[in-house]
Amino acid sequence: MADLDDLRDGMNFGVGVSSVSQDFHVKGAAHQPWGMKDRLSRIFNPNTGKTVMLAFDHGFIMGPTSGLERIDLNIVPLVEYADCLMCTRGILQAIIPPNTNKPVCLRSDAGTSILTELNDNVLMDIEDAIRLNVSAMAIMLSIGDPLYEAKTVANLYRAVDLGSRHNIPVMGVTAVGKQMARDARYFGLATRICAENGANIVKSYYCEGFENVAAACPVPIVIAGGKKLPEKEALEMCYNAINDGAAGVDMGRNVFQSTSPAAMIQAVHAVVHDGLTPEQGFELFNDLKK
After folding, report:
1. Which pLDDT value is given to residue 120?
2. Rounded mean pLDDT of 94-122?
């Protein structure tokens, strides 16, 4: 084991130097087998290497939160504008039409309600992921939580083992508990631990110093939208994250709680894939919501 007494903060991150292989458009996946690359190519647009994921898995710990009271009315109309859907198996099977032809990143762990901060997660059977023909599995990782870190790391490690057997990518989702700082030091640690344990994608948060976090993570990072922001601020976050090395966004509340969800996801898509500035994206949003 490494000696912890003389560990030093990283400094040479090579920010601005691409680590995406010219042989494949997804960071860290050049040596993966065909089936894994095929699924990653469904999630990440081959022309841009980016993705806009629509997250609506919140109900598995929050219940019918605002904007998710009726998935059939509030989310299904947005599906056509997303590159990938992130949801639970119950919602997928009960509500999402199987002819949408969109890749699915399936929430593949389950825990207790939001009242206890998503703890003591259990892992879904890999056969369910196979039966549902998903393109990736999402697993929570709670770094820095003395009670549940070991369990979530074990879940991630086990999911990667199972996913590798069937060429299903795993997305490590970095949790942020009340005692955890939302800074580059924490996210740098959490995203790297996800990747070191075999995650093919990492979902994390944008923060000051994110360019170092992204550079030090050998697989793609997609940023979480987090709490609801004013539309222009959310577009600014997307733009800054992409410019600082993110490979996409996984937006939930900043889309389905928007004053015009369909306009918002299209504006986010244009910022991520077409390079629109936040100002241009906000103008597009206003035009589309008319």
Report:
1. 58
2. 80
Q: What is the pLDDT of residues 203-228, one digit of tens each?
A: 999 999 999 999 999 999 999 998 99
Domains defined along the chain, listed by start = 45-221 (3.20.20.70)
Cα 96 to Cα 76: distance, rounded to the nearest angstrom: 7
Distance, in Å, from the CA atom of 247 to the CA atom of 26, rounded to the nearest integer, reads 9
List the catalytic residue out of 178, 203, 227, 228.
203
- Give residue 114's pLDDT: 55
Q: Is 203 one of the annotated active-site residues of the chain?
A: yes
* Percent of the residues in the chain that have a pLDDT greater than 70, as a whole number: 87
**How many other C-beta atoms are found inside a 10 Å radius of the C-beta of residue 26?**
24
Question: In 177-269, where do the E strands start and end?
Answer: 201-204, 221-224, 248-251
DSSP string, 23-44: T-SSTT-TTS-HHHHHHHHHHS
Burial class of 30 by CB neighbour count within 10 A (0 to 12, 13 to 18, 19+): middle
Instruction: Please say whether the beta carbons of 95 and 109 come within 8 A.
Output: no
